[in-house]
Structures are given as structure tokens and as C-alpha cells.
Amino acid sequence: MSDYSCVALSPDHEVGAFRCGKPSLDSWLHGQASRAQAAGTARTYVWTQVDRPEVLAYYSIAPTQVTRAEVTRSLAGGYTIIPGYLLARLALDEHLHGQGLGSELLVNALERIVEAARSSGGRLIVVDAIDDDAHAFYRRHDFLPITGSMRLYLKVATAAAALGDHP
Questions:
Q1: What is the pTM (predicted TM-score) of this model?
Q2: Active-site residue, 138 included
């Protein structure tokens, strides 16, 4: 990882100055991330500079499940209900855009999800892209789109293999 530390969001982190260019992602970090963390509905991980409290990037992960009807036969793997992880948010502060760090942040999130799946199970990684740019970003990283939807999927096993992580 770059020169950033990735840790779980805590009350010590300063989120107020974070701006990624997508108001809904900014406002979620400012007002909902800590609440979701406290309620146990999602875990948010932040990038900061070492020994600095200002959040420079973040992603949030939550457990999820999808039904066989929502995915291809290959993704369903014969199951009616498919457990997985929702990559609920992923954002990089505007001053870090254009440096390839979005891809690095995604890899960091995928590593965390693969590790969680290794210990707790889960077959799919799900993303609901916020817009066409985000959809294209995830497509470039091998996520598969669901026709007529902004939802994309990646098998945990595919992510693990891409990361060089084999059981």
C-alpha cells in the first residue's frame, strides 16, 4: 500500500474535510459511517497518513446475500441464497484522484473481504455502482455487471486468485 495506513474508522478520525466529488459519499462518511459502525451494520476502513487523524480515503463493507434469480447460474453455484459481502462505499479524497490510488484502495478492500470470507464464508462480492463512472471502474477490475442494473458481482474465489491468495 502507498504511504497510507488503513484502519477501522474510530471517533478519533477527522472526517469533516473529506471531499471525494460525490456528495452522497461525502455525506455518508460525515454522518452515517460511525452510526453504521456502532450498530454493526457495516464496517468502515479509512486511509490516513501515519499519525494523522484526517481521513483521505475510505471503504465500507457489510454482509449481504443475493438470490439465484439475481445472478447467473455460474455465480449462484447451485445455491438458492448466495452469501457474500457488499462493498457498500469506496471513495478517495479529490486531491488524491488521478494517481491510481482508487485501484489500490479497491485492492485493499478486496483483501479484507477475502480474509473475512476465509474465516466466515461468503461466495460473492457485490457492488452497487453510484454512477456510470463507478460502473466502468468496477468493470475494469473484473466485476461482472447484471444487465439493466448498476449492480456488479465478483466471486470471492476470483478476487482471491487475482490477489495471489489461494487456500
A1: 0.92
A2: yes
